[in-house]
Amino acid sequence: MISQYIEKNLILLDDDSLDRQELFQKVALKLTKKGYVKEGFKEFLNNREDDYPTGLELGYSNVAIPHGDPSFVNHPFIMVVRLKESIIMNRMDDPEVSIPVKMLFILGLNSGENHLLILKTLMKKIQNEAFINEILNASSEEGIISLLSEKTEGKEHEKN
């Protein structure tokens, strides 16, 4: 399920953004140019992150899962960003606490049902330290796609 929303051109490896605003500007520009989102996506992401932070403190590596409103999404996507250096984000469960984040999964989905299923699947996977380490050490966009497909679809099929 997740692999249908991830494309090579939506993976940023070792991005050099220095803060959330710079990263969201870069992400929104790329997504807008490619037709994935409408104008205003960057502002929405920043405002939503201010109101409802998405940082997750996992102990081994912190992750954030910012997600856009369906009204801004033209074509559903999952964008994966691995940063060179961590940026500061606030915790989802304690918005007053800032944490360094090096990996982001930016969701742009327009189906409520799929949105919840994908979010649930991602949340389960990112709680696996080995999974996060593999993504942090992947050498290519294809490697990230393969890991996400293998670590999500593969496990789902095993249950069936």
Essential attributes:
160 residues, alpha/beta, Mannitol-specific EII, Chain A, five-stranded mixed beta sheet, 5 helices, 21% strand, disordered C terminus
What do you see in this structure?
Keywords: Pyruvate, Transferase. GO terms for molecular function: transferase activity. InterPro entries: PTrfase/Anion_transptr, PTS_EIIA_type-2_dom, PTS_SugarTrans_NitroReg. It comes from Streptococcus porcinus. Pfam families: PTS_EIIA_2 (PF00359). The chain has 5 helices and 5 strands, in the order βααββββααα. The longest helix is centred in the last third of the chain and has 19 residues. The radius of gyration is 15 Å and the shape is globular. Helices cover 42% and strands 21% of the residues. It is of the alpha/beta class. The chain has a 5-stranded mixed sheet with strand order 1-4-5-3-2. It has a single domain, classed as 3-Layer(aba) Sandwich (Mannitol-specific EII, Chain A), CATH 3.40.930.10. α1 packs antiparallel against α2.
Briefly summarize what is shown:
With 160 residues, this protein is α/β, with parallel strands linked by helices. It contains five helices and five strands, in the order βααββββααα. Strands 1-4-5-3-2 form a five-stranded mixed beta sheet.
